[in-house]
Amino acid sequence: MEMKDITKQMIQFNKATFDNTFSAMTALQEQTEKMVNNLLEQNALMPAEGKKAVSDWLKSFKRGCEDFKALVDGNYKKVEEAFASFDKK
After folding, report:
1. Are 11 and 79 in contact (CB under 8 A)?
2. Exposed, middle or buried: residue 76 (CB in 10 Å: 0-12, 13-18, 19+)?
3. What contacts 24+ positions apart, CB below 8 Å, involve 62-68?
4. Radius of gyration from C-alpha coordinates of the chain
5. Sign of CA dihedral 72, 74, 80, 85
6. Which residue, 65, 75, 77, 81, is most buried by CB atoms nearer than 10 A?
7. Which of 12, 26, 4 lies closest to 77, judged by CA?
8. Rounded-to-integer distance, Cα 80 and Cα 39, Å
9. What local confidence, expressed as pLDDT, does residue 89 receive?
10. Contact by Cβ (8 Å): 85, 16
11. pTM above the 0.85 mark?
12. Residues 6+ away with beta carbon under 8 Å from 69
């Protein structure tokens, strides 16, 4: 097996590992978000501004995760395209 094939397999393995880990992290984040939202709904002592701040924070975190995933996916695509150009040579 050639070195470029081994490297391609390593990259595919890393991408699969990242995707699985990101999915697990996303599931954990969604469960935590549900729990926090339930606590906020049941908490009568927290002011509306505080509830809004926590809600905005959760949305910001979720958006940051989505942006990070898109960035990583884009970089994996660039690497795959680079290896595709090696195959053409």
Report:
1. yes
2. middle
3. 62/29, 62/33, 65/22, 65/25, 65/26, 65/29
4. 20
5. negative
6. 65
7. 12
8. 44
9. 58
10. no
11. no
12. 22
